[in-house]
């Protein structure tokens, strides 16, 4: 991923430099179909080939006209059916949320929903717990991703078997996440909360969510190739772009991704042409050719209102993400969308009367999407070249206080109550300092340009840090990423600490086995009380090693191995922390008895068993902290 990022950045720098040399008068014309098609062909075809993307589609609209609408690769490789830029369907992932937000605002216009009412007002079969008394979750919180829910996905968000489809209300009740922060305090992207908004639309309208969107958005705009239904109706399924994995150099078709249990958050299948119809309405104050989906003032409200952590950066509107694409004044809004098989982009600019939609599928689809999107905006909507040619210098006094920013920061989009939380311990964004005071983040240098505000040394990206009540640094936010915040991770949650803990557990457990083997080889026969201590030590060691062995087997295929359910190896691994609880407690009791009764042959042997007990207690803390004691996962 770091290599890909540098590749995209290199493309951007080259294009910016080329643009500066040519001058503003020679800027490429995004309204010229020939220019646009030549660029897109060059940017997409080679990248798809290099990165093994099986299919892609790009639509560009400028001034109310479709400049390009073109498919790449194959809709169906086995049948050799090429992608049709007009009719082929792609999974748009979280771009689906935009239809959910439009549906919500339609009902707000009708006075049937309030953005600021407790969402429990609109729920029938379950409620949101009153975790923070007097601070209910509202639709405004949900649309700005500030409702305060933890995140989760593994094992249940996406299915590959239609038999697992549940009614939306039943699914949301079964997989309800915990509230971890007060609403409105922190942005943390939530698929569950987004799906909850869709359920509220269904409850209030008296229609299923998919039927509501079909009638009030898709049919209203003439979007004949768009649907939230899963599996797709036969007439649309034949147009669906297939998803593929690459195995032994050959493309193997993957099952259709089923997101019905959280459909409003990401289940739409849609063609590029239909996305241009949707874009026309958004760019034309909520209507197209007399077909209105929102009033002009409502659409403007969605853009103007929202949430921003730091007013110097772009935040999020009422559902619309505001990204950093293009120069100042471009003011892009829209949404990205990713499933595990498709990667999509849909952003607009009212100032430029412009839209770009793209979607790519296959093993390298996500990488191709990032490469293409970065290259497109860098070429057609260049930022000032001074950002590249005139890097800013760190303030002289920054070096003395830069250490205050250093540390590991975790994403607010995290899990805290299931075993999925352990992913947090393996990640995080590390902020380091250089001797001159610049910050090093994700391999790039950032220089202070304002109080707690940093800008990329040779680029436009900005990061704003937040101070806590004691004057320290509590976290940061990125410009154009208003739905996620980063908070300073406590040391026990950092990957370094957890690697040390796991290394200590494995090392001590291995030494217990080596010691037992040595004693067996020497034919040493301790007394009954001493034998009891040795056997419990051995049991603790075996359980600890078995956990790591089975857990390692379970994650050897990466996170993708747990998308549709946790592997059997993970479930087997979870038995061992349960066994460790009584074993470690027993070992601690026996270690005390060793000292009280003078058991074992030497003080060193007593110290060894004390160390085993302490290591066992450390292990129990580790397993409890990361929710590994018990079967804490969704299926």
Task: For the structure shown, list the relevant keywords.
8-stranded antiparallel barrel, 41% helix, 16% strand, disordered N terminus, alpha+beta, Beta-lactamase, 21 strands, 635 residues, Lipocalin, 3 domains, 6-stranded antiparallel sheet, single chain
CATH topology of the largest domain: Beta-lactamase
Show unreliable segments: 1-25
> In angstroms, what separates the terminal alpha carbons?
30 Å
Q: What helical percentage do the residues reach?
A: 40-55%
**What's the overall geometry?**
globular
Largest sheet descriptor: 8 strands, antiparallel, barrel
Question: Strand arrangement, largest sheet?
Answer: 14-15-16-17-18-19-20-21
CATH A-level architecture of the largest domain:
3-Layer(aba) Sandwich
Tell me the radius of gyration. Answer: 28 Å
Oligomer: single chain
Q: Structural class of the secondary elements?
A: alpha+beta
According to CATH, what is the class of the largest domain? Alpha Beta
Q: What portion of residues belong to β-strands? A: 15-25%
Q: Counting H and I runs of at least 4 residues, what is the number of helices? A: 20
What name goes with the CATH superfamily of the largest domain?
DD-peptidase/beta-lactamase superfamily
Find the count of extended strands (DSSP E, 2+ residues).
21
* Rounded average pLDDT: 91
């Amino acid at each position: 991923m770091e290599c890909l990022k540098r590749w995209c950045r290199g493309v951007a720098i080259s294009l910016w430099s080329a643009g500066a040399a040519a001058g503003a008068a020679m800027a490429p014309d995004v309204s010229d179909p020939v220019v646009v098609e030549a660029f897109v062909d060059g940017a997409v075809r080679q990248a798809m080939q290099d990165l093994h993307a099986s299919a892609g589609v790009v639509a560009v609209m400028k001034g109310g006209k479709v400049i390009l609408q073109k498919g790449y690769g194959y809709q169906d490789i086995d049948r050799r059916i090429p992608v049709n830029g007009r009719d082929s369907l792609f999974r748009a992932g979280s771009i689906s949320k935009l239809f959910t937000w439009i549906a919500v605002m339609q009902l707000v216009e009708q006075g049937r929903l309030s953005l600021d009412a407790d969402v429990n007002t609109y729920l029938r079969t379950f409620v949101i717990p009153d975790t923070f008394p007097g601070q209910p979750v509202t639709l405004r919180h949900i649309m700005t991703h500030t409702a305060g829910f933890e995140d989760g996905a593994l094992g249940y968000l996406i299915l590959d078997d239609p038999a697992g489809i549940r009614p939306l209300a039943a699914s949301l009740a079964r997989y309800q996440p915990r509230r971890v922060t007060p609403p409105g305090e922190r942005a943390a992207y939530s698929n569950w909360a987004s799906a909850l908004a869709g359920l509220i639309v269904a409850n209030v309208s008296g229609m299923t969510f998919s039927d509501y969107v079909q009638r009030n958005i898709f049919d209203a705009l003439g979007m004949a190739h768009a649907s939230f239904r899963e599996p797709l109706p036969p007439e649309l399924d034949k147009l669906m772009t297939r998803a593929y994995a690459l195995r032994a150099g050959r493309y193997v078709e993957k099952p259709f991704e089923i997101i019905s249990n959280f459909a409003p958050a990401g289940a739409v299948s849609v063609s590029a042409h239909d996305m241009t119809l949707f874009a026309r309405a958004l760019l034309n104050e909520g209507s197209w050719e007399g077909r209105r989906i929102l009033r002009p003032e409502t659409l403007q409200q969605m853009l103007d209102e929202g949430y921003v952590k730091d007013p110097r950066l772009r935040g999020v509107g009422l559902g619309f993400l505001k990204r950093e694409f293009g120069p100042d004044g471009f003011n892009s809004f829209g949404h990205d969308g990713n499933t595990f098989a498709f990667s999509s982009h849909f952003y607009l600019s009212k100032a430029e009367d412009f839209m770009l939609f793209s979607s790519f599928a296959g093993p390298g689809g996500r990488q191709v999407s990032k490469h293409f999107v970065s290259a497109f905006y860098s070429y057609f909507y260049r930022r000032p070249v001074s950002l590249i040619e005139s890097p800013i210098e760190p303030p002289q006094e920054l070096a003395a206080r830069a250490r205050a920013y250093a540390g590991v920061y975790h994403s607010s989009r995290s899990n805290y109550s299931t075993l999925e939380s352990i992913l947090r311990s393996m990640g995080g964004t590390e902020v380091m300092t250089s001797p001159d005071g610049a910050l090093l983040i994700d391999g790039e240098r950032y220089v202070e340009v304002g109080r707690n505000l940093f800008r990329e040394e040779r680029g436009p990206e900005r990061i704003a840090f937040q101070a806590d009540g004691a004057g320290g640094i509590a976290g940061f936010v990125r410009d154009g990423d208003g739905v996620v915040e980063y908070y300073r991770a406590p040391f026990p949650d950092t990957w370094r600490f957890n690697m040390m803990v796991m290394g200590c557990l494995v090392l001590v457990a291995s030494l217990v086995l080596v010691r037992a083997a040595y004693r067996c080889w020497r034919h040493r026969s301790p007394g009954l009380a001493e034998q009891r201590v040795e056997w419990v030590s051995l049991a603790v060691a075996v359980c600890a090693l078995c956990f790591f062995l089975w857990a390692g087997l379970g994650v050897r295929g990466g996170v993708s191995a747990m998308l549709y359910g946790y592997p059997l190896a993970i479930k087997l691994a979870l038995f061992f922390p349960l066994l460790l609880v009584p074993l470690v407690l027993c070992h601690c009791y026996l270690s005390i008895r060793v000292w009280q009764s003078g058991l074992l042959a030497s003080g060193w042997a007593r110290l060894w068993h004390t160390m085993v007990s302490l290591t066992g207690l450390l292990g129990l803390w580790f397993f409890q902290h990361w929710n590994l004691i018990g079967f804490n996962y969704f299926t």
